[in-house]
């Protein structure tokens, strides 16, 4: 049973716009994790990469590059989920846009993988040499 007071937009507590935007973003991320397993898999890999980077001791610039790449790939993945939801009951044009969006996500993930490998390889190599 739903709570009628919280479901009614006029009864819902008012929040400042910036805070409501954060609440919406958190809800969107939660929904994205539940909706599509690829976002969960990406998050798992990203956490593993961040943990490896912590152990390897990346420099500040390397951290910036790594986090920019991960944020880029996460944004592409979330936008692709938007296209998937729009394409469920729509025209052929939106279906084609979904194909292009999926290609963009693949390109983003491959780019992050290559950049991450370029950043982490020297650190791994120095571990093997010593």
Shape: globular
Strand content: under 5%
Oligomer: single chain
Cα end-to-end separation: 62 Å
Number of strands: 0
| CATH architecture field | Orthogonal Bundle
Rg over CA atoms, rounded to whole Å, is 19 Å
Name the helicity range: over 70%
Q: Regarding CATH, which class?
A: Mainly Alpha
H and E string: HHHHH
The tally of domains stands at 1
What are its keywords?
single chain, globular, 84% helix, 0% strand, mainly alpha, Helix Hairpins, 5 helices, 130 residues
Commentary on this structure:
With 130 residues, this protein is mainly alpha-helical. The protein has one domain (17-129): Orthogonal Bundle (Helix Hairpins). It has five helices and no strands. It has helices at 4-7, 17-35, 37-56, 60-87, 92-129. Helix 4 (60-87) runs antiparallel to helix 5 (92-129). The protein starts with a helix and ends with a helix. The mean pLDDT is 85.
Give a brief description.
With 130 residues, the chain is mainly alpha-helical. The chain has helices at residues 4-7, 17-35, 37-56, 60-87, 92-129. It has one domain: Helix Hairpins (Orthogonal Bundle).
